[in-house]
Amino acid sequence: MPDSQLEIIRYARHLPQLERPKAVNRAIERFIGVRRSWRGDIEGEDVFWEEGLQ
User: Fold this and answer.
1) Which residues are paired to 36 by β-bridges?
2) What confidence tens digit (pLDDT) does each residue in 10-40 have?
3) Which residue in 21, 20, 44 sits closest to 32, CA to CA?
4) CA neighbor of 20 nearest in space, from 28, 9, 31, 30
5) Which residues of 5-36 are buried (b: 16+ CB within 10 A; e: fewer)?
6) Which of 5, 27, 32 shows the shortest CA–CA distance to 16?
7) How many separate helices (H) and strands (E) can be counted in the chain?
């Protein structure tokens, strides 16, 4: 798959999305390039609306 990345979620076994959801979400956000503010809000939400991603 073009532009794919291997991410290893440590201390998870068969269901990392259930066992370590924050780590999985961080890996996904890094891959798609989402930035979060210190409050946890997604920065640049207007970009998603312009591109029709929400």
Assistant:
1) 42
2) 999 999 999 999 999 999 988 888 776 667 6
3) 44
4) 9
5) eeeeeeeeeeebeeebeebbeebeeeeeebee
6) 27
7) 3, 2
